Amino acid sequence: MKRAAELLLQPDHKITDIARRLGYTDNHYFSKAFKNYYHISPTQYRSSHVKTPS
Q1: What does the alpha-carbon distance between residue 8 and residue 5 come to, in Å, rounded to a whole number?
Q2: Which domain holds residue 31?
Q3: Is 8 domain-assigned?
Q4: Which residue of 27, 34, 37, 47 is most buried, as measured by CB atoms within 10 A?
């Protein structure tokens, strides 16, 4: 999950691509596993950690 968190900080990587890259064939299962580990969804994690240019 730590690698997933690192990849989520790069906004050019889609969450589905990150899941596949880490060996998950089911995006829903990846999201559930991530949320169980970090107590936040991958989308929420990305939103709270990635700064958008203003």
Answers
A1: 5
A2: 2-49
A3: yes
A4: 34
Structure tokens at 42: 């991958």
| Residue whose token pair is 């969450």 | 15
Residues in the chain: 54
- The tokens describing 46, both together, are 């990305």
- pLDDT tier at 52, thresholds 50, 70, 90: low
- Flag whether 39 is in a domain: yes
Tokens, residue 32 = 């559930």
pTM of this prediction? Answer: 0.87
Number of structural domains the chain divides into: 1
| Helix then strand then coil, % of the chain, to nearest 5 | 65, 0, 35
